[in-house]
Amino acid sequence: DIQMTQSPSTLSASVGDRVTITCRASQSISSWLAWYQQKPGKAPKLLIYKASSLESGVPSRFSGSGSGTEFTLTISSLQPDDFATYYCQQYNSYLWALTFGGGTKVEIK
Amino acid sequence: EVQLVETGGGLIQPGGSLRLSCAASGFTVSSNYMSWVRQAPGKGLEWVSVIYSGGSTYYADSVKGRFTISRDNSKNTLYLQMNSLRAEDTAVYYCARDNSSSGYFNYWGQGTLVTVSS
Questions:
Q1: Is pLDDT larger for residue B10 or for residue A97?
Q2: Residue range A50-59, pLDDT digits in tens
């Protein structure tokens, strides 16, 4: 299986901050990467797919970049609704399993 | 409006069996790739299984041979039959729709909790 490593695991930030989360794959996944936001007790919500494509309805302050093995999710100006846990997910192929990163919790500083 | 509603979770003893259901509305299950994803308490997300629109199925190594994914087209419902359950199968189980048949999920259910304990 392809291993996904996110950093940091926890991030403390203030409203208005620019926030960057990194996700590294154990082998190249081209641009087959998605990002999700999850709040406590809720299902994940898709933010970004194909590394940099913004899902419909997601605010433009969210952006994704990267290819190969290194990817980033950036929140340009953190809003109160953005405090949550974020997961990356590779989808290189179902045949070799889909895998998620360990998550990054964005907390209020 | 797309909706996914999971049911069937509960407390089950190790070695037992349970069947989860995911009732869909607003789209046709059989025309989409549908997956189960689970999340152990306080932990991250783990993909469990997928059924393709054509009927092919794939499983994570951790559940292969114990879990079976299926669907009932007449009921527009996805299932996960879980046998030989272990304590490490304890998790919230989500069904999820892969809208583009690519491997990422743009619709999720609310989840159902499975607890494996004696």
A1: B10
A2: 999 999 999 9
Closest to A87 (Cα-Cα) out of A109, A64, A58: A64
| Closest-CA distance of chain B to residue A9, Å | 11
CB atoms within 10 A of CB A11: 17
Q: Which residues contact A106 (CB under 8 A, 6 or more apart)?
A: A11, A13, A19, A21, A75, A78, A82, A83, A84, A85, A86
Mean pLDDT for A45-70 is: 98
Structure tokens at B33: 């790739």
**Strands (DSSP E) along B13-90, which ranges?**
18-25, 33-39, 45-51, 57-59, 67-72, 77-82
Within chain B, where are the H helices?
none
Cis peptide before A8 (omega within 30 of 0): yes
CA nearest to B109, candidates B75, B69, B79: B79
Burial class (CB in 10 A: 0-12, 13-18, 19+), B32: buried
Gap from B15 CA to chain A (nearest CA, Å): 25
| pLDDT 10s digits, A2-42 | 999 999 999 999 999 999 999 999 999 999 999 999 999 99
C-beta atoms of B103 and A101 within 8 A: no
